[in-house]
Structure formats: structure tokens, C-alpha cells
């Protein structure tokens, strides 16, 4: 086990080094050449052909196309990992809000997972802030020349962006760490005061969480095309996030149950309920994404439709269909049967599938802005490098976190209720009493 | 009561705690009875397994109801808007699954819910207008503080004396009563 950890650690360190060196070299190269790239100009112009006379930034990014590509691909991986962390944080919120008992044995997993928000998701945000000029074209546009930016200037300006975005990510980390701290404190004294405190924090925090998550993904993802309007964009990201986090926790919990730490406390009930919840969010995600599409389609206002029109060009159309069928119909039909939700032979591959689909979904949101749209989605070696690299790093940190405290809330007042076995002996077992 | 010969309904066994009735249910299950039931004032977790009740089939009714609702919605809108009386609304196509979806979705839920409700009633053979157990005085406490097992006379394994013995000795019933039809 230790050898494996060391191996993963080394691998992550090497990947990070390779990444850093590559970024450094390309940055130097790009600075050297500083060529007025015609390709970049065309690419960006296609994306923004809908926009009202905006094309200044296309030249601002000229010659730095590789940095833009790296930035956007990094952002895709970052949004994926952020999903799992905020999704786990949401589960902690919900646990306390509903005073749930069934989820007590699996809560520590969610607490540790969401604790990755600080410092790691904040640290991983640094490259995005460093490359912001290349990732977010609106930062280089003069608001006086762009009406849609002008009206959104209160939020979409560089100082606010650089102040709020790190603050938002840090604040989620703070909330996650507070939940974890109280939960661990309860392991020691068993006092119900920690449960009550967490309940108050959850009740107040859920509102903050909803607003800040919306704002956070407006900044991180939606502002890639700042002309776009969609008030449900935050919910859309949220739905996909919780979906991905749930199946991840399903697999992690099963693994921890088989490996030992949770074998005494996790039973059929927890596994099934996590599966049921994953199923519910399959439907919820589809409901939300369909609603966003349908409202935009029905109203047919150019300021909104361009976002989807962009994503129907070239191969992007098929990516959209992949999301429709792969993100909804396949998991929905597979999970319809009750027993499937407890069957590792289906749920573990489903986790891989859900990860792939969520990554495709993030790509669908981010990469069409890189263009040219007619070319459709382009896969590059950066994708697996950032995606797996970040996941491996966060996975390693999760395991480290997980060891730092008990594997489940040892003295939660509801633990007994949650672990009471309602399972009865099968036929024949009761013959002798 | 009429003058006809009374037929047996079964044997009713009373228990004082959920644990007792749970154990009794396990024994009845293992003894191979098929026509019997447990009556409790509140749901007892794990009773389904203790009784050996199989997974409910009601989901199939829901599925069929849902699929019916969805196809009804789609075909209805296609028929009305594209086939029977073509009408352009808001510059949209005459038919597309997009705007037919909300209605189909609602019909999926509506017919799915109806099918669930009526499927449940059908599988439970409800409504049932007469149950001999309601004549039994002690059975009133089934909605208060007592737990009951009733093995019906129609069960192939039912044998008046042997079953009474079984309920008394193996299930440790607090009281046993013979119930007429």
C-alpha cells in the first residue's frame, strides 16, 4: 500500500514537473515568436462572429494561441475536479440540513473530499489566474466598445474578477474545513453541540453556497463567452457536479468498505441510497440542461441562442448528442432497476462513464471558444495530462486527508441509528435458536 | 350470522413486541407457509426480508404507464399540430420533440403515477370490503400496541392443530385465536 502511495506521489510530482517545464518553454517560445497569427485571428473571429463588433481581443491573443489552448484545457480539467469537491460539500450541507441518519457513516468521506477545496483547489486555481489574459478574451476588451461587457461591468472587470474568484474558492474551502473540524471534534467528546452547530452553518451556508457557486461558474466558465445570458447556468453546473461527486463517493465508499475502514458501518442501505441519489441527479441534470436549452430555443433571442448555435457547428453537434444520450439516457435506463444501484459490476464502470460524460460536458462548455468551430472538438495530449494529473494529485491528497482522522464520525448522535442492521437471516438460518 | 356452516379463516397469533413478531415471521417463512400475513401498528424495518416477501412488481406498472404517457404526449402533439391541423406557431417547426417534450414529460409522470397507484391496488387485491379479522376483538390492538401473525386456512401447509402448536411452541405467541370466515 505504502509503495503504491509513493509511486503515485512520484508520478504526480513528475507530471507536475513536465507540465511546468512545458508551459515555461512554450511561454518563452511564444514570447520569442510573437507572430501575428492569422489562424488565431480567424479562430476567435468565428467564435465571436455573433458579437457586436468585438474582435479586438482576437489580436490581443495573437501569437499566444498555445497559451490559450493550454489555459482552456487546464480550465476543463479544473472544472471537472472542482465539481467533485463542491458536489461533496453539497452532500455535507444536505446531511446536516435534513438531520439525516443514513448518511452518517459516509459523511467523513464527503467531508474529506470537500476539504480538498482548501488549499488544493485554490492552489490549482493559480495557473488559471496566471493565464487569465489568454483564457478570458473579455479581460482584453474595452467595455466602451462592447455593449454586453459594458452592462455587465459591475462583475466583469479585472479587479473584481481577481478578488472575488479566489475568495469564492477559499470560502468554500473554509466552510468545508469548518464542517470537518466540528465533525472531528465530535469524535473526541461526542457532544451533540457540534451537530447543532453544523446544522446552523448548513442552514445559513446553503444560501451562500447557491449564490457563490453560480457566481463562481459565471466567472470560470460562462465568461468565456461574456455575451451569453443564462440565469440557470450555475444550477446546470451544480447538477452535473453533484452527479459526478455522488458516483465518485459511491465507488470510494464501496472500496473503503471492502478494504476495511468502513466495513463495520456501511451496509446495503448506504450503498443503495447513494445509488438512488445518483439516479435522481441523472434526472435532475437532464431536467436542468433541457430547460436551459428549451427556454433559449423557445425564446430565440440572438444574445442567448448564439451559445448553442456555436455548439451545433461541425463536430460539436455530435458532442451535444453524446451528452443527451450518454449523460442522460444511458445512465437513466441502466439505473432504472432497483438492484442495479447496489451492483458494483455495473456501478463501477458507470463511474468511469459518468466521469467521461462530465468531462465531455465541461469540454462542451469550454472548448468551442477555442475554435475554429467547423473543425469540431479536437483532443490533445493536454487533456489526459491535466485531467489525470489533477485527479491523481487530488486523489493522493484525499487519501492523505482521509488518514488524518477517523474514517467515519465515531460519536455522531445518529450513528447508532444509521448502522443498526435491519437485515434478517435468510431461510434456514433461524432453524436453531 | 346466517345458519350456514362457518368456514375457518385461519389462526391469529398475538405478539407483544416487534422483535417477537419478527422472529415469528422468520419461522413462518422458513416453515414454508405461503398464505399468511403480519399486522403491525407501524412499519418494522426488515420485515420484508423476515417474511421472505419478494421485490414488488409494481415498478413494471409504473414503467408501462410512463412509456404510455410519453408516447401519448408525442403522438398527440404530432397528430394535432403536424398531421390533422398544421399550424405554424412562433416560427417553430410543425413538429419537433423539443416543444412536445414538456407535455410528454408531464404525461409520463401522470400516467406513471396512475399506473403505480392502480397497479399497487391490483397487486394487493384492494379494495377489499370484508376481512374476517376485523371481527376479532383483540385484533383492534393491531393499530395500537400489539403485533399479529395470521396463517390462513387456505394455506396448503395449514393444519388446524399442528399450526396452532407451531405458533405456540416455535413462534412463542402470547395468545392464539381461531378466526372464522
Q: What do these coordinates show?
A:
The complex is a heterodimer of chains A (433) and B (181). Chain A is mainly α and 433 residues long. Chain A has one domain (68-416). Helix content of chain A is 71%, strand content 0%. Chain A is built from 17 helices and no strands. Chain A has helices spanning 2-33, 38-47, 56-60, 65-97, 104-114, 120-130, 132-135, 147-151, 158-189, 193-220, 233-259, 268-299, 302-310, 316-335, 344-366, 382-403, 415-419. In chain A, helix 9 runs antiparallel to helix 10. In chain B, helix 3 packs antiparallel against helix 4. Chain B is an alpha+beta fold and 181 residues long. The longest helix of chain B has 27 residues, at 58-84. Chain B has helices spanning 18-31, 47-51, 58-84, 97-123, 160-170, and strands spanning 8-15, 36-39, 147-152, 175-180. The N and C termini of chain B lie close together (11 Å). A 4-stranded antiparallel β-sheet of chain B has the order 2-3-1-4, with helices on one face. Chain B has 2 domains: 8-53 and 126-180, no CATH class; 58-123, no CATH class. In chain B, 46% of the residues lie in helices and 13% in strands. Chain B is elongated, with a radius of gyration of 25 Å. Classes of the chains: A mainly alpha (433), B alpha+beta (181). The interface between A and B is medium-sized, with 19 and 21 residues.
Labels describing this entry:
heterodimer, A: 433 residues, 17 helices, 71% helix, B: 181 residues, alpha+beta, 2 domains, 4-stranded antiparallel beta sheet, 13% strand
Present the secondary structure layout.
The complex is a heterodimer of chains A (433) and B (181).
Chain A: H1 2-33, H2 38-47, H3 56-60, H4 65-97, H5 104-114, H6 120-130, H7 132-135, H8 147-151, H9 158-189, H10 193-220, H11 233-259, H12 268-299, H13 302-310, H14 316-335, H15 344-366, H16 382-403, H17 415-419
Helix pairs in contact in A: 1-4, 1-16, 4-5, 4-6, 4-10, 4-11, 4-15, 4-16, 5-9, 6-9, 9-10, 10-11, 11-12, 11-15, 12-14, 14-15
Chain B: E1 8-15, H1 18-31, E2 36-39, H2 47-51, H3 58-84, H4 97-123, E3 147-152, H5 160-170, E4 175-180
Antiparallel strand pairs in B: 1-3, 1-4, 2-3
Helix pairs in contact in B: 3-4
